[in-house]
Amino acid sequence: MPTPARRQYLDIKAQYPDALLAYNIGDFYEFFDRDAEVAARELHLTLTARTFGPDELVPLAGVPVHAIHVYAARLVARGYRVAICDQVSPAGRGLVRREVTRVLTPGTVVEPGMLAATRETNLAAIAFGKRDPATGIPRAIGLAWADASVGAFGCVQWPAEDLPHALQAELARLGPAEVLISKPVADEEALAADWLGAYRLTSCAEDAFEPESARIRLCRHFNVATLAGFGCESLPLATAAAGAIVHYIGRVNASLLPLLSDLRTYETRGFVEMDGRAWRALEVVEPSHSEYASGQRGVTLLSTLDMTRTAMGARLLRRTLLHPLRDRATLEARLDAVGELVGAVGPRQRLGSLLDGLGDLERLAARVTQGAAVPRELFGLASGLSRAPAVIAALEGCDAAELREAQAALDPCDDVRELIARAVADPSEATGRRVRAGYSPELDALVESASETRRWIAALEGIERERTGIRSLKVGYNKVFGYYIEITRPNLSRVPSDYQRRQTIATGERFVTAELKEHEARALHADERIEALDGELYAGLLMELARAHPRLRQTAQALARLDLWLAFAEVAIARRYSRPTLTDDTSLEIIGGRHPVIEAALDGVEFIPNDTQLADLNAGAAQSRAMLLTGPNMAGKSTYLRQVALITLLAQAGSFVPAQSARIGLVDRVFARVGAEDDLARGLSTFMLEMVETAFILRHATERSLVVLDEVGRGTSSTDGLAIAQAVIERLCAVTGARTLFATHYHELAELAETLPRLGAYHMEVAEREGQAIFLRRVSPGASNQSYGVQVARMAGLPAEVTARAEALARNHLIAGDVTARVAETAAVYDGRSDGASGADELVSDADRELTLALASMNLVAMTPLEALNLLFSLQQRALASLGMPAPRAP
Description:
26 strands; 31 helices; six-stranded mixed β-sheet; 44% helix; alpha/beta; 17% strand
């Protein structure tokens, strides 16, 4: 039979079976049973045991109360949910009452020590509509997300024709720490292997996602009769997802609900669409792990551009880069703001000095509304608000609409600052109270009464020494016996009759008097009442300040926008970025473009700029819409592809760009297939994944898209790879019409430029000196005539005899299919009949012998007519070359 204490724990744990229960006992939070084993393993704690009753020995692991958030943060970061169970009744006789006060989950943490300062912590919820029996794809999907640390709350719904890529793209942008789905969806076995399994999923009861229940829940939460004002009344699945978030937050930490004071309904079609792999391939906010990565560990476009001065500005920069826009008017307004700050030295410098050291007002305001802000945070909030008038003054005379709007949105919140200054105790004074003296007469009277009592107790020692004549008499205090008068053993005969013995110690006795006990009781009662009243007053103060949350958040967001425009301006000045010209056509013209990340990493070393010219679709078939870029590995093809995509993204984020000039027809999507990856968890090899992504691009790219493809077809045989690459570039040029950059090592494809409309052939320039390839990093018209693979292998450190042998084989055309000749020559070399390059030259110096060996190697029975024709053409080229005659072009 469990003891009462054990029964209390088990009852509470039964309410949170999917969480680790941190159970407050005195100065520790204890984990029991299986939770203790998990906590000990994950936190490197000592696993001990505790007895409950005579027969039950329970595993135990504990952490100090003051460090719970440090340890809980580590558990949450590993994907666990932690239920914090606190004592809610004073310790005394009988069982202390306890209850779970909050549940920490990856998507709902708001404690400052558990949050990344420069990125959001988003909680997402997905509501799936009924599936189409034919395709298995839901007929519609709703998504909602919330960042409880600042009170952001939004939702969106997509029809079937936008699925599933729209949901994938939005999740990639949001990067949610936790995703809520209904339990029936979570139980589907197919989901575990799907892309959604990459996120931390939390299953909720199905009724949490029921649209009508969610609508009623949201109306109750916002205290409205209809959701029409929020724009989601006709979006049942978006409503369902938003309602699920409110339901979940109310269950795990209801104190966060007041932060969700508004719901924004939006459409993703206003953003440039990209999937998760494209974001990674371009290293926008996360570094790529492919062999084509920038080479700088952790260096991304975000880190390169981050000259923001505040945490809220850094978060806005990240959101802005992940949400490039299609609306030219909005982008022009952003560029106007950046441009004005670039040209206005005085305002730029004043604004920078005012933003330096500014606290995270956005999250501080949320802490106030949550009722969790401490005095130090309130003083930080007031200090930040005090800069608003100076910021307003610094923006006087600005012409850009974005700057004027930010100036108008700045509210110094004088009433908030005045209340904090008048009511909140200075934390540096260490009084132990949160309410300032003079704010509450009742509290001041209690404090004065307690002070008088303590002054009387402090004077008691001198009074009693004089009364008793005992010079060694001392007045002391301990937690067990309270205040006492201590008399040493030799002086016990002189103890007055009104002293009452309290304790015997080795050196004497301790006594109390009736008057001392009365003053002690008065002091203790005053302390308890002071603490309680101080808490009540401070809670009321936070409630009063919380009413200003909309104004506080508006001011914080205005400051964040100013920080962002200022950062864009300072990057533009420091790195010689220029303002792009945005158009509504489908052209793309970049003069002197540079890769922003690599250029910054070069630290002063000159980056070789390159141009890009892709004509508008209506410019005529003679104008290039696609670039076929050939050249060896290491020559810079991937860098060039990435820089064009990044320049386009920067322009559509509202930033100046690393180029001498840029004229960019707004894109609707950016597709980037750059680098070699696999997805073995889904059973996709490198080549299979490449084909899956290429198929997606070919099906979804439009004439307004930008397509960046690198080395399509490299994961299979040369014959198949070349055929696939040609078919893909033909489709993009002749059917899709998208602006395309297609890098390949198949330099044979460059001949397509002569017959395929809208395709231009370009190559990476390479100089060769004494057998060494020198990569010039310049893009020039025309095709590359060789791959320089042996030179790259030599640079990589392959043994000299291996590269010499490879060079001989390549020079004598034995790699291209002459199996018998290659085998014969290899036998000659390794039998000692030849010594590498000279032996190979001797073996193939006779053209007749070469052709004979080639013919002997043919398997005519297994050949297709096309393969036979290609082989015959190859033999003809060799025969003509041996006679010194020019070879004809391939058909």
